[in-house]
Amino acid sequence: MNRADPGAGLAEPSRGAARPPICIVVHAHSDLSKGGGETAAHRELLALRAVGHEVTLVAATEQRLDGEQIVAHAPGEFLFSTEGMEEDRLSWADSADRRDLVRFLAGQPAGIFHFHHVWRIGLDLIAELMEARPDARFVVTLHEMLAICAHHGQMIRIQGRELCRAASPTQCAACFPDRSPRHFELRRATFLETLRRFDAAVFPSEFIRGRYQDWGFSPVVSVVQENYLGDVLTGAPRRLAVEPDLAGHFAFFGQPTPFKGLDILLRGFTLALAAAPRLSLSIFGCERDDVLALFPTLAPVLDQAGSALSFFGRYDQADVLHLMQGAGWVVVPSIWWENSPVVIQEAMRAGTPLIVSDIGGMAEKVRPGLDGLHFRRGSPPDLARVLRQAADPARHAAISASLGDSIGRDAFIAGIERAFGVTPRRASA
Amino acid sequence: MKSGDAWDIDLAVDCARPLGRRHVFVQGWLSWSQDGDLPTPVVLADGLPLRTVAQAWHARPDLPGDPGGRRSARGFIMIARRPTGAVATGGIALRAGSDMAPVPQPWFGPEVVDALAHLPWDGVFALMMDCIRLGDLAATLAPNDGLDGVFDRWINLMPRLDPAARDVHGMAHIDAFGAPSGECVVTVQLPRRLGPKEELRVVALLPADGGSRPAALDGPPALRGANGATFYGRLPLTTGTPAPACDLLVELRGPDGGIWFRTSPKLHPAPVFLGKLNGLTTAGEAAESFTWLRGVLETRRSAFDTTFRPARPPRGDMTDAPMVVVLHGMDDPFADRLAFLFAPEIERRATEVRVLGARASATTEIFLQRGRIPARSGLDLSAAVRHGTFRHAMLVPIDPLSLARALDAGGIDEVFANQVDGAALPHLLGLAALAGTLEEGETIARLARILAEGRGGRVDRHRFGRMPGATGQMIADHLAALWRDGAPALRARAVHEPG
Is the pLDDT of residue B86 over 90? Predict the structure, then answer.
């Protein structure tokens, strides 16, 4: 890695220019981790560059950087160490590290700073950078609800896994008995004040925008648009022909976390299988042992599913469309809200209809009867009912025909430029 | 020195000494026929009677008995005052009835301090109480300069007891505690019923020049219970705030003797002090305890009125007074983070920041790193009052929650509206001693809430813990009233505002 030169002075003020340089600041680099936010940020970098914007990307990393605070990672891409941050990664314990980073960012010739997440970046860093660069425009993409919910931003109650529909200091303190309602009131004010200082906010779904609005955040400029999948996936061909045999073949893509609902899917599938023995389910992203490690009581369920259930382990992201096109339906059974799951975008891009929980970003992105089917969140019997319905080849064909596509590059660029307050560019070919 | 008397009075002087330049100390005994009244001894100077300013009687079991049992004998201690400017030339004498006992010159008997150390404690205690009561005898109490501090040696003989001693000196237990307001409580419980003529009296021993100076404690008569009594008293208001830690000299005395001891009361903040007092009184008869406690609270209220009633000194226009922001309640990581966001605005308005709370250091660091205005952790209210640190400033207490709510409401001017006159901090200290905890964070927070309430904010419902029962409610109301009535006087005003 090369040591980055933080630069000595501020750049010329760029606000008001038609296409000022952009600096994307993100909580991780997609070369080092595969989360949705960092992937979206890097795809934005490439898309903006592809249409002629001058863009740099500065990403956080938990990796040790040999004592350096900031290092170059790729042309116009930098990594900074989070070692000096507080344990919750919301502010900096080492103010010298923060100052170095602020100096580096302020020295970027950027007229626009676009933040993806504030976690691993620091509320204090954002405030200090805004103070150092009053000439710049600040935009944030809120991929998750961490500002609203201390439970990893999931808005799901810690005890009982009930859905949480609105944060309040007393309710939040009930989830975290070691913290007071006052703590949550202060937490909210700190996040809210930070977010209110941004010139614009991008929400990847109407659902998450609504949650932030209910919470008290109504940005001056608000853009709701989903993340861009990148030129490679966006340019890949969709499935054209509908194969009737695929109607009864379902697939799950993802990790077996407690909130992804894989346990619900496995139970629902087994129930459906009892009535329709020709159904099948493929699990991509984990092995049988991974599932049992998290849900040990599912062993009889897996045994019951027998050969109708297959585990394919981890997959290469580059293969995702191809894998999805091999399934009749992609199932997203999450028991939490999911703000804008990339799996849904990828399935739409692949041309594979979806079966999703009837809440949050899933319910919003998948139009029932057009893009897929909904089932009652957390209910294996209802999922079983929907799986049986979905196995009808005629229904599968109809929904496949009306299935929407993921956002294209031009639409994405137009939306992001609106957030950036720059003159919209003419759509490229 | 002994003489007989035609009225059948025997009069004896054991000690006669000058006490300072204006008093004469005489100690002796007399005996008289049992069918006569107790004779009154008088000190004469140059044949003229001197005014007796303090006198105490005590038993003299050491005197030879009267075989017929027809005579009484008692010891006496007295202090008489000499006329101003008069110099005795014809000698000092003592007279009782028609009997006269001349006092040999130059004086007679041991030094006063030694004489008192060897006299019965009931008599010395009574004399000491008289000396405390009489202003012109105050010099006898101070431990300095020659004859002053005449009770010191006797005081040093007192047994020292733990303030929560059990089964000692014939008592089941004692409990002695005090408050920074100069209030003290002593309760004595006996393993028997309290005699109808037994009395509990307490004197404070204030630290003075390496010794101690006895001082009166004002308050209602002790509350009597079946097996004991509870004394409440407060030091004179001139003692200062917070009042110095003092020892207590306790006497439980009846016709057949008494108990004397010295103890160091455990100090508690005023609410805890009153809570403990409430606990003691609720153990007694309810109605009587209620009435007694109400008397105690009236004493406190009276002290408050004396302290806070005087008009505040006129101040000039405070609009341009330097603003010291007091960030209090900084005890949460998000309080720090909020302060970080808010720091430029504070720096724009204030000349200094003081930070209170468990995370005060972290918050102070924010301002130190920015380096725009001075910042320090802590306020040290007592020292600030002593040195007049903020007397020309305007203090603006801001807590993170108020800030959070103001930000939510869309304007932060509101959080700067609570302005405390720095010259009024002695009043705040007094109020905190009388009705608060003296913990600076708690004190500032309470004041800020009440000032906000006065400006239409929320009513301050922060009580000082739970206090059960009717007396508990009375105490809670009393404390709330002191703050409610005392806090507004601390508010900084612009010159055009009414006082």
Answer: no
List helix spans (H) across B101-259: 112-117, 121-133, 152-157
- How far apart CA A37 and CA A208 sit, in angstroms, is 14
Q: Rounded CA gap, A229 and A342, in Å? A: 8
Write the ipTM.
0.90
In chain A, what are the domain boundaries? Answer: 2-231+409-420, 234-402
Judged by a CB distance cut-off of 8 A, whether residue B334 touches chain A is yes
Q: Are the C-beta atoms of residues A222 and A335 closer than 8 Å to each other?
A: no
> B245-268, pLDDT tens digit by residue?
899 999 999 988 899 999 999 999
- Class (C level, CATH) for A234-402: alpha beta
Among the partner-chain residues A127, A187, A216, the one whose CB lies closest to the CB of B341 is: A127
Contact B159, B147 (CB under 8 A): no
Lookup: tokens for A395: 């229904």
Domain ranges of chain B: 2-155, 158-267, 318-490
Give B291-299 contacts, CB < 8 A, sequence gap 24+: B292/B220, B292/B223, B293/B471, B293/B474, B293/B475, B294/B474, B295/B220, B296/B219, B296/B220, B296/B232, B297/B474, B297/B475, B297/B478, B299/B218, B299/B219, B299/B220, B299/B232, B299/B234
Nearest chain B CA: its distance from A17 CA (Å): 28
Q: What pTM was estimated for this model as a whole? A: 0.85
Give yes or no on whether A2-231+409-420 and A234-402 have one common fold.
yes
Residues of A with CB under 8 A from a CB of B: 86, 88, 90-91, 95, 123-124, 127, 131, 182-183, 185-190, 192-194, 216
CATH architecture designation of domain B158-267:
Sandwich (2.60)
**Distances in whole angstroms, Cα of residue A45 to Cα of each of A50, A104, A123, A136, B459:** 8, 19, 23, 18, 53
Cα–Cα distance measured from residue B281 to residue B175, given in angstroms and rounded to the nearest whole number: 13
* pLDDT at residue B436, as a whole number: 92
Per-residue pLDDT reduced to its tens digit, A193-206: 999 999 999 999 99
Q: How far apart are CA B104 and CA B86, in angstroms?
A: 19
The reported pLDDT for the residue numbered A10 is 35
Instruction: Encode pLDDT of A343-385 as tens digits.
Output: 999 999 999 999 999 999 999 999 999 999 999 999 999 999 9
Give the Cβ contact number of residue B91 at 10 Å.
14
CB contact under 8 A, B404 and A188: yes
Would you say B176 and B163 are in contact if contact means Cβ atoms under 8 Å apart?
A: yes
Q: Which of B253, B248, B249 is nearest to B267 (CA)?
A: B248
Which of A90, A187, A193 lies at the smallest CB-CB distance from B407?
A193
Structural tokens at position B60? 């003299």
Mean pLDDT within B112-129: 91
Render pLDDT for A326-349 as a digit per residue (tens, 0 to 9): 999 999 999 999 999 999 999 999
Fold of A2-231+409-420: Rossmann fold (3.40.50)
Backbone angles phi, psi at A126, to 5 degrees: -60, -45
Sheet with B2-3, side-by-side order of all strands: B2-3, B9-19, B23-33, B71-81, B51-58
3-state SS track over A124-173: HHHHHHHHHCCCCEEEEECCCCCCCCCCCCCCECCCCCCECCCCCHHHHH
For residue B375, name the pLDDT band (cuts at 50, 70, 90). very high
